[in-house]
Fold this protein.
Amino acid sequence: MKRYPLSKKDKKQFIKEFQRYGLPVSEEDLFEYYEDGGNIFILVNKTPALLKHGEQWIPCLRYLLKNPQHSITLPSIIVDKGAAQALLRGADLMVPGIRSIIGGFKAGDIVAIIDEETGRVIAIGSALIDSEVIKNGSVKKGKAVKILHHLNDEYYKAV
């Protein structure tokens, strides 16, 4: 296990990453690097905020849930109860489970998945198709989002 505060230079680099996702941070926040069991995180004020997934940094659900949703500009997909239950078991998001889309995205973009019933973010994924394709109804079945991180997965339980 490794854990140490980030240098000012590294901190500035990560602030850009946070801004890319619309996540609230400030220069005064404590930024730490944390590695455990092959999982790598950036902690902000001791809360996991970003996690390394492959070659990219993605937002951590703990940080999203701890901060008000209105401050997050990440494109979001609202899903029905059936889709939410499947996602929490580790499934990818299928087109029929989508109720609505907030913001626009292209294939490959990181998106937040929100449970329609609770209004809470329950997963983070990589879009497999553009939001416009979903909105215009030209695709009615198949995978829409590859889930990278969901509530109660290994990343959620790691820190």
The longest strand covers residues 143-150. The mean pLDDT is 91. The chain has five helices and eleven strands. The helical segments are 8-21, 61-66, 81-88, 131-135, 154-158.
